[in-house]
Amino acid sequence: MSVLTESTIIDRLKSVKFPGYSRDIVSFGLVKEIKLSGGDVLVRLAVATSNPSIPEAIKREAENAVSTTPGVSSARVIIDISNPPDTGKGTAGSAVTGIAGVKHVIAVASGKGGVGKSTVAANLVAALQQRGLNAGLCDCDIYGPSISLMFGATQEQPMATSDNTILPIERYGIKLMSMGSLLDDSSPAILRGPMVTRATQQFLRQVDWSGLDYLILDLPPGTGDIQLTIVQTVALSGAVIVTTPQEVALIDARKASAMFAKVNVPVLGLVENMSFFVSPSDGKRYEIFGSGGGKREAARLRVPLLGEVPIDVATREAGDRGMPVVLEDPKSAVSSIFLSIADQLHRAVARVT
Ligand SMILES: Nc1ncnc2c1ncn2[C@@H]1O[C@H](COP(=O)(O)OP(=O)(O)OP(=O)(O)O)[C@@H](O)[C@H]1O
Ligand SMILES: [Mg+2]
């Protein structure tokens, strides 16, 4: 008969997925201790969550996985609920968000890729700053960063202090952090899951974001590891979901919204991007991806529709040039939509916190 070892138990725990995600509890670093005494096994896990059903589900599955391991006579799983993200009750700084000196953290997310998250995030941070608030932007799209490009900061490297604090890049008075400033244009970010988790945590924890009213997080599409790492690392004041009016995007927006609901993060609203196109030659309005989808979905999710952003050449060009349109042309029609989204969010955050 084979001897029961810690690594056998770890292998078994690798079959336990974090509820709602594809990643297992071992690779997320939740396992803190394993004690073996003959066939009796004690496993200690640490989970950061404010949703009580998550540790319950993990405990059930982990106990089941360990107790069915050959050679185990009894299995006990203890879960320490560490740093439960409190969704922003209180007034200031790190006690609230988990990031020193940051009052509010808002994630800009979507289910489907390419719907305009980064464009919305870049203009939202610029709009908040236009309103006299201190805002910063963290590009959490580790594999496909675009924020450094949208702010013309691909050549700028963040600096580190002697105590290993990373100083963010600053463009137009906005603090930024993006993998795009750490890689050259042609190098893909070849990182395995746990490295991505570490990079995300470093971007949030090791960067000096102090002095911000708002830290906006530009997320990669979907509901994967990075999203889970974020909700485990910081207490979000809320999330903004970006979609296009198209059905495929709306379905994925619903999934993204369900993911935030599962971890008790309020969805502050929906932004419908690429809503319509007004032809400059004849002023006619074209609804290229359909119409009314964002409004319907917002009503279904019972969240506000924060804005309908048109397909706008100046918005795309400004992003490509390295300056968000809200900074380049604050008086344009599209900029006024982004400013209105920022105002609504500012009010919504005041309500939920
Ligand atoms: N309202 C808009 N008008 C014109 N072009 C836009 C608009 N919104 C986004 N784009 C363009 O569409 C492309 C995709 O936008 P963006 O990179 O913001 O999407 P994303 O959701 O962040 O994508 P990913 O999922 O890859 O991170 C970009 O080239 C951007 O310039
Ligand atoms: Mg993006």
Q: How is this structure best summarized?
A:
With 353 residues, the chain is of the alpha/beta class. 35% of the residues lie in helices and 22% in strands.
Could you characterize the architecture of this molecule?
The chain has 353 residues and is of the alpha/beta class. It has two domains: 76 residues, GMP Synthetase, Chain A, domain 3; 259 residues, P-loop containing nucleotide triphosphate hydrolases (Rossmann fold), CATH 3.40.50. The protein has twelve helices and 15 strands. The strands form four sheets. An eight-stranded mixed sheet has the order 8-9-5-10-4-11-12-15, sandwiched between helices. It has a three-stranded mixed sheet with strand order 1-2-3, covered by helices on one side. Helix 8 links the parallel strand 11 and strand 12. Helix 6 runs parallel beside helix 7. It is globular and about 80 Å long. The chain starts with 5 loop residues before the first helix and ends with a helix. About 3% of the residues have low confidence. It binds adenosine-5'-triphosphate (ATP) and magnesium ion. Magnesium ion (MG) binds next to helix 4.
Protein traits:
35% helix, Rossmann fold, alpha/beta, single chain, GMP Synthetase, Chain A, domain 3, 3-stranded mixed beta sheet, binds magnesium ion, 8-stranded mixed beta sheet, binds adenosine-5'-triphosphate, 353 residues
